Amino acid sequence: MTSRDALDAPSSVPVIAPHGDVDIEALPALQERADSALAEHGALILDAAGISFADSSFLRLVFTLHDRGDLRIAAPSPTVRRLLQVVGADTFLNLYATVEAARSGPAA
């Protein structure tokens, strides 16, 4: 997994954009960045467009982040969207079509 992080202004919601496989091996680095963003800003945009594979460890992280703060999932790839639908998480998570929509979307 590779990732890019973005923060346009001090008050902006940070964006983390993992790419490739998000599994048990890639999770620690992603979790560390996500934990830091939530602790500092109380909110996080997860740009999920580049995720090609996600397993149950990714789901656990998403649920944990959702419970801890304002998690906004932007542009979920077909893989991520299907995973969230299978477990019913698409009914309660904050999903947005784009990062821009997530930035301007209402806080959870």
Description of the structure:
The chain is of the alpha/beta class. 40% of the residues lie in helices and 28% in strands. The chain has four helices and six strands, in the order ββαββαβαβα. The protein has helices at 27-41, 56-68, 78-86, 99-104; strands at 2-6, 15-22, 43-47, 51-54, 70-74, 94-96. Strands 1, 2, 3, 4, 5 and 6 form a six-stranded mixed beta sheet that branches. Helix 1 (27-41) runs parallel beside helix 2. The longest helix is centred in the N-terminal third of the chain and has 15 residues, at 27-41. The chain starts with a strand and ends with a helix.
Helix content: 25-40%
Count of helical regions: 4
* Rg, Cα atoms, Å: 12 Å
Using DSSP, what is the number of strands? 6
Q: What percent strand?
A: 25-35%
What do the pLDDT scores average to? 91
Largest sheet: 6 strands, mixed
Return residue spans where pLDDT drops below 50 for at least 5 consecutive residues: none
Judged by helices, strands and strand pairing, the structural class is alpha/beta
Q: What coarse outline follows from CA principal-axis ratios?
A: globular
C-alpha termini separation: 28 Å
